[in-house]
Specification:
about 240 residues, alpha/beta
Length: about 240
């Protein structure tokens, strides 16, 4: 695995959201509302953009998730059901494309990224959040079956609707572009600038025995991998500029 510069670490939701919000707010102007594409919108929009004018177009392949979003929040200005690989959207239209934990579920993730470039205005930004396949968590996710992911979400994380229509987890594929090496290579080939790259790790040892056991297990696996797998940086955040 190719070595890259040490990642700045994000260890809480507030910090991560603040970084993304600041980059989006930089696109605000007096010339009209900021056009945002939420590519793979799921059930909720996590960012606070108060104080700026914006239009969010939400796209998702999961019709049930779109219906939940509409009935619970109804915060999308436009809603599109479709496959990001084959969807026809206006080119050079969006100021911001936000894509959060979606690419790892798509066979043809690079095709989706190519579409993002076409849909994005010159100077626009793409915000991408992906799991790190070379973290201990990412490695375990890659080698375990989908039924186990559902079991974990329902019985460990306490999400009774996990795996039902409209609810994560979804099957994972982890194509080469869904990684640090893949993202850097894609940006190099397509003349895309990486404005920022962060490693994300919210995990804390905790005080109860179960959390301590999990934390120790992750540390042990990382050590036994001789540096191939990270015990931190479970997820990655990219801010890209066209």
């Amino acid at each position: 695995m190719q070595k890259y510069a040490r990642l700045d670490l994000i260890n809480n939701w507030e910090q991560e959201n603040g970084i993304m919000e600041n980059y989006i707010k930089k696109k605000a102007s007096d010339n009209g509302a900021v056009q945002i594409l939420e590519a793979g919108c799921g059930q909720k929009w996590p960012l606070n953009l108060n104080g700026m004018r914006y239009v969010i177009t939400g796209v998702d392949l999961d019709k049930a998730a779109l219906e939940i979003r509409k009935n619970s929040l109804n915060d999308l200005h436009k809603m599109v059901e479709g496959d990001l690989r084959y969807l026809k959207l206006q080119e050079n239209h969006f100021d911001v494309i936000y894509n959060s934990y979606v690419l790892e579920h798509i066979k043809g993730a690079e095709q989706v990224l190519n579409n993002f470039i076409r849909w994005l205005k010159s100077g626009g930004i793409i915000i991408i959040r992906i799991p790190n396949p070379y973290s201990v968590k990412g490695f375990i996710t890659r080698i375990t079956p989908h039924w186990f992911h559902i079991f974990y979400h329902r019985n460990i994380l306490g999400r009774p609707n996990a795996g039902k229509a409209g609810y994560a987890p979804y099957p994972v594929h982890y194509e080469p572009v869904v990684s640090r090496a893949g993202m850097h290579e894609f940006c190099r080939k397509n003349n895309i600038t990486i404005l920022a790259e962060y490693g994300i790790d919210y995990a804390k040892p905790g005080k109860n025995a179960f959390k301590l056991l999990i934390h120790s297990f992750i540390k042990t696996v990382a050590i036994l991998s001789f540096g191939v797998l990270s015990s931190r940086h479970s997820n990655l955040l990219y801010i890209l500029k066209k």
